[in-house]
């Protein structure tokens, strides 16, 4: 019964990954290059003097910064909402109507969301126009640089605001599924509201939050469309860099592009493995 | 069941690594290029898949409305305009098809630029020998050096022109007095630093040739001429490039966002210009700001202008891949593009395309056609740069080798450096 | 204080839905809307109507719907038995299978997209509707299977045994009990599949080879062109359909929180 | 009307040391209601699943009217199992739930309708046919489940602790209803419970199932008053066991020599042998002074006494017995007040020998 699913996910996915790795090793039949070499990877190392070497490490750092910041901010935001907004109720369930509303935000593809963010927060965007009409700024240049800024703020804002409803829904689903009233039990044992939160509610939602953060991190780490729209020319995020190299007019730089995307995948896998190991250890204690 | 799925998985993996092309039915022998009537007959009932940049809605509707209708009515050909965000996607597609041995493929005609033309030539993916066999090719000046080199790459028999373009700036006559416009790179530097943050250019790089062209113009002016850059000379590059970077780095702190960010596309720059973040935009259109005004992308007071010299002009082309499934229809379409009536239509701002003639008006013998073409030129009006000024500043592009030197050098020395 | 906090959540949720819609709406209805004007000079339905009337837009809309519905159907057909096997069957190597199914949710699409294109070309599926649908299943299936199996794990198989002892044969049990009992789970999974497929850009662009032009592909091409009026119009179209789907689904399923994929 | 017999049923899971059911044989007469009584984990529910066909035995046979049903799959066995929870299909109305079994058999709609009405009347739920399960109380749900089970006129009805999730009062009324309906329909029934009172009050015969074996089988009275083994006796609330040497009707113990039962029941010809006898706590009588003419009297020290409403329970220490003797006397018949020492009388007819195991 699993076979069709495994063939599609495992088979297609595995074969494509294999293909990507081959290409990153310089196997480029369309320009008659069949030799396997690690050159593309060497070219990424600092000091090799290639354009790729100048950009790879900054891009890696920038990508880690953006995906890390967006994930953490979103997690803090979602948790904050649960804590502040719903923490006091006896059983922290969402107020009626909010879940369908949050679900609606999921109708926005990331690209569409980023377009909206750009229209709102650009230096000549709608917010800047409002401030101008209020007399708070005189020219677009007076408005802070939030879109296409060298620190990735626009990208982070876009992903954070998009991830918060997603994480919130995950947390609410977890709390909703909790049929036993642990919070009430803790209260009868003498726990204060904050103690209940700290020792009961948080541990309950933590696995879901970790899983959601991992998904979010992986997604942002490998994202292309939004950084392409809201980012600057330097530093660039890894996926943008990879596709740029891949699309370079010189077909030989395709290997470098593929190498960058293979490394992007490898790093995400590493992070996922570490997160899994950490949560596995945590949940192992609970049996 | 698991064993079977495992086997299938293995097959898939193997298929991914093997280079044996999938067996496909061979095409019937194509009509000889000299037999135009047979080509037209073969093309009837075909669908021509035209891959082109789809970012401009006005260009999209111009293509559908003018060529789509005419192809259907006159030749019984269906036009499938395939919009891509970047012509390089079509290149990717062709390379993958070649790698997999797919023939016939999926692309019949590409609106292509020099970089991608070079890539496809490198990969030997283009169909050749056809451009001067088109009936309308007699209207094209195949002796014009600006036409027979695409970004400096010889077009040989692989490309047929569609339209022409020339690098120009746009300003807003409601905000800027024409008398204050800079007319050289030197004056631009002065202007920019006197008006901090009010100027920027498109980041040079693959797919953003306008930015590269802006930098090339600076190189021409610094070195005192465009002619010596027609052929590649490494020593000459090493002599002048430091001065080029020096100029651009001097300009950088005066730029929009002090040069830490640059618009990635022409349209992004139009947006900055229209929203008063910067004072000038860049265009390639013979209508100047006309087509953009018609589209609503810039204010109606926008006008075009040029420096006194070094405004690179060129042609743009269509090419047919070697594995085009509907070659006859592609040839008919490439020929249709050169019809005087469509050439006249394509330059008018209200039609939404707004690029110049691909044909040479002087070669048009039909009196009425010629009159239409000339009248169209006269109708461009105020938003366009006067033809005389355009011609006076016109220079051809530099050799293709400089393209990536400029793009990578710019990233290294201007964008990232210091 | 708590009322205030809940109010804040409401405000946030409302803003995240209405603000983008409002922005798109204004831009789509008001061409030539430049800084510093607070509102467009004039609002007119004309650009939006022209966009909707454009046969290319209609084709993209139809294709998007076709792909998303096909993918939804396929994902449920393939995902349901897989989820059932994962939940109920005693499996050897369950962890490995789960890991394989989980991979596409973390591995960036960019890392496999190009290879996938070559593969689909060799299988003769590149540039075809069915090829695009199959490729969409890669990001869709993990979400569908994980959703279904998490909902199925709460499913009490006694209902099936009850039907069995009442005289229902295997097919009758499936048709009369298992299927209706699984309907809510299937509906949620189908919604996820639809949303993910509907929003998918990169795989469609790479595998569709430009011949399968769905709305996101159209939008991305427009982003490079940057005309905000058309861009906003297409964005509105892209958002409208999944919004309707979500509203419909939550009406059918009632209250409880459901989580849709990160995509 | 169907007789149900089990022959040497064994169920053993791979990698499990002891069998879940070991060589179990049991006969249920036609129209009889047999209660399977046992602790949790004793294999009661497993036995029901075997009869219903939801599980396959490792060995042995199950016969309806002497015909083996082992080859029949669950849906062809006509043995309906009702679980602890009603498992009414939540998406079907009460009427649709009840007629489910007829629907899958392809019975004509009109017949279905009539049968549903009959069943609703039988379980006293007329007028609720359009409700959905979520709109019913727990007791009502079980009644519907019962109606649904009976509508197909099963050969065997199997009830797996059907009352355990209900409140006491609802449980009582439902127990009565089930007993009534079972008598009316005469369907051969096996009911599983761990509740002694429920078993005694409902059963025609009780089968006590301990560790996968039948430890006792008989009328409620037989099983209750004379459990044949030590384990069965313990399960039925007996705590006083006296070990000694039995010779004829005389048991020599550390607490003296006791006489057992009617003389005819004893076998004086047998040589002396070790034996254990048991007595129910309510059959011991208490006396302030030693009763003159009664056998089996011992002196006990009162350790504890507790008031239980209709009875008073005492724990008495008797010299020579390792464990305190538990005695229950009706409140009306209890010595009041009781001194620190009291005489216990163990009537010979109330003592019986129990086997080990």
The main β sheet of chain D shows up as: 6 strands, mixed
Shape of chain A: globular
Mean pLDDT of chain D equals 89
Supply the number of helical segments of chain A.
12
- Ranges of chain A with pLDDT <50 over ≥5 residues? none
Shape of chain D: elongated
Main sheet makeup of chain A: none
Protein architecture, described:
The complex is a heterotetramer of chains A (287), B (418), C (263) and D (357). By secondary structure, chain A is mostly helical. Helix content of chain A is 69%, strand content 0%. Chain A has 12 helices and no strands. The mean pLDDT of chain A is 83. Chain C has 263 residues and is mainly alpha-helical. Helices cover 77% and strands 0% of the residues of chain C. Chain C has helices spanning 2-29, 46-53, 55-88, 94-106, 109-122, 129-152, 158-165, 170-199, 202-208, 215-225, 228-253. Chain C is globular, with a radius of gyration of 22 Å. Helices cover 24% and strands 32% of the residues of chain D. In chain D, the strands form 4 sheets. A 6-stranded mixed beta sheet of chain D has the order 6-7-8-3-9-10, sandwiched between helices. Chains in contact: A-B, A-C, B-C, C-D. Chains A and C meet through α1, α3, α4, α5 and α6 of A and α1, α3, α4, α5 and α6 of C.
Chart the SSEs and their pairings:
The complex is a heterotetramer of chains A (287), B (418), C (263) and D (357).
Chain B: H1 2-17, H2 36-43, E1 47-53, H3 57-75, E2 78-84, H4 88-100, E3 109-112, H5 114-122, H6 145-148, E4 149-150, E5 153-154, E6 159-166, E7 168-172, H7 185-194, H8 209-223, H9 234-251, H10 266-274, E8 281-283, H11 290-295, E9 302-305, E10 311-319, H12 327-337, H13 340-347, E11 356-357, H14 367-378, H15 387-393, E12 394-395, H16 401-416
Parallel strand pairs in B: 1-2, 1-3, 10-12
Antiparallel strand pairs in B: 3-10, 4-5, 6-10, 6-11, 7-8, 7-9
Helix pairs in contact in B: 2-12, 8-9, 9-16, 13-14
Chain C: H1 2-29, H2 46-53, H3 55-88, H4 94-106, H5 109-122, H6 129-152, H7 158-165, H8 170-199, H9 202-208, H10 215-225, H11 228-253
Chain D: E1 4-11, E2 21-28, E3 33-37, H1 44-52, E4 59-64, E5 67-68, E6 79-82, H2 94-98, H3 100-105, H4 109-122, H5 138-150, E7 156-160, H6 168-185, E8 188-193, H7 196-202, E9 205-210, E10 213-218, H8 220-225, H9 230-235, E11 240-247, E12 250-253, E13 256-259, E14 273-279, E15 285-287, E16 297-307, E17 311-318, E18 325-330, E19 341-345, E20 352-354
Parallel strand pairs in D: 3-8, 3-9, 6-7, 7-8
Antiparallel strand pairs in D: 1-2, 1-4, 4-5, 9-10, 11-12, 11-14, 12-13, 14-20, 15-19, 16-17, 16-19, 17-18
